[in-house]
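[agent] plan:
  1. take the single chain provided in the ticket
  2. run structure prediction with default settings
  3. attach structure tokens to the ticket
  4. add a short note for the reviewer (M.T.)
[agent] executing step 1
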Amino acid sequence: MKNLNWGIFSTGAIAKNFAKTADAMGISIYGIASRTLQSANAFAAQFNIAHAYGSYEEMVQDPAIDVIYIATPHNLHYENMVLCLTHGKHVFCEKPITVTRAEAEKAYALAAEKGLFLMEAYWTRLIPLNEKLLQLLSQNVIGTVQLAQANYGYISQGPRGVRKMDPALAGGALLDIGIYTIGYLAMLFGYAPKQITGSVTRCNVGTDALSTVVMEYENGIKAVALTAIGTHIPVEAVIYGSEGRIVIPNHKNPTRIEVILNDGTTTVYEDEFAVNGYEYEIEHAAQCITDGKLTSDKYTPAMSLSMMDIFDKLRADWEMRFPFEQ
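[agent] step 2 finished; step 3 output follows
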């Protein structure tokens, strides 16, 4: 695999996870960019990164940068991607890729026009044990699937909690972690359910604090996603079939799958991470770029856009628009 010069936009928690993972993989990050040089310098010192930039514009003007990992808040993703792509940089962008499908379509179109790689960083899709799960479902190991549920909720307090719910930043649980619940179920059963319904509880600033979303499929499967910020809900998915169930104790970054048949027979599949789970998406994106691909065949633009369709529909149903959309 070709050695790529990676750059990172932002110095937040997700960016730090990326840098830690890359270091453990033996990947040297070329540069870090922040809105202030002070922040970029501190990040560079922490992770032994050679180049620090006091603005995103400065980084994209460096011809040595091959690919940029965008870890900014998702309300900035579209403008950040446009900046990178117009300066000839491949892009690996955190989820959700944008706030709306319309923005995502334009980003993918621009990448194709420029002949550059663009992928949404849905790391869960690249975890090997999920490939095993998809195989088990295709083999009907629990008979006919009837119902599935994926849950995730966390409590975030202080300034971070305020930021997570801020409508000016496209806040709320749906866009923040919906891909871990709704997206996980769509990964398993398809991105075009025949019907999508959802009930929502809003927080005091109007964004979604808790929602229950039901996706119904032509084959009769009902997939239920429970997503929340401000309520602790264990990260667990369960798939129920006519002959048993499959339990995924931590579907966000799974290392264990339990197949429990109605007769009590239990089979456990385990696969520990080489690093922490993020390594698979980084390796995949780098390999795609090395191979000259413009998109991923694991998490395709069609999947990414379909997720935005689901988010768009739910927000429309809930009449939840952000101030910058008015």
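[agent] step 4 note for reviewer: Residues 195 and 216 are 5 Å apart (CA to CA).
[agent] ticket updated
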